[in-house]
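So, can you check what follows?
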Amino acid sequence: MPQAPVPPQGPQVAEAYGIRFLCGADDIERVVTEVRRRGKWARRLRGQEVSSASAPGLLLIGEPSSGQRRLARMAARALAEVEAGSGEIRTVRAEEVAANGPEGLGELLAGHAGHVLLLDGLDALVLDEPRGAGYSAALARARLEGVSDTALVGTCAPARVGELSAAAPELVTDLRAVRLPDLSRPREREALLRLLAEERRLRIGEDAWTVVRRDLAALRGRGRVTGARLVEAYLDRAATSHLGRAAATQAIGDTGALTLSASDFEGVADSLVTP
């Protein structure tokens, strides 16, 4: 008798170049492999008169603070591995791009040649700015008609993907879409908290999980403290609470790890939403 399929264990964590990433609907290790191979291919074609290709491009689909910078860093490291990039990321916001108009986009991309350029708010640039069509056309022209040595990583809110695809089909087709995790859901928040705790050498005591799961299901962001920043702030405040109460000799154990208890998390969620 065939065995029943094993149900998925929850969100997957990918790791590359010493960077760990909480996956959404897409296989991030595959995405990184594609970026590396596209970068190597584009580098080999440099200087050919007949055929050439621009540096890789990604469209990161997710709410703010869903792992955009982490994935951009992974892409930058992947390109550096095949000598198709510097390993650095540069960030520019939509309003900064809009300040120079569509005419300045070519110069902007050229100014970041060899690097990964994270364009935060590509959807807002194309859909909300009065000259949005001009920006999408200029980006597509630079990448498809010319040869751009800048790896473009644009961000887009999940609710606006369809609208962006309709408004800028050439550009969206050129960028590899990557769906980021939905950090409004408790399961994803818990997986991220576990990842962050391991990175910080923190342990969550068994008695703490009842409090933690209750809080993660109810946490609401405020201002820019949303998504991963919200989970990170929650964990860091609990660690600070622990350090404030523990005796100096007991704060950090022999392993160098802190073990957080339920009392360390009590009241933390309220402190994050109360001005």
About this structure: Residues 94 and 121 are 5 Å apart (CA to CA). The chain has two domains: 13-179, 186-273. The beta strands are 13-16, 19-22, 57-61, 89-93, 116-120, 151-156, 176-179, 202-204, 258-260. The mean pLDDT is 92.
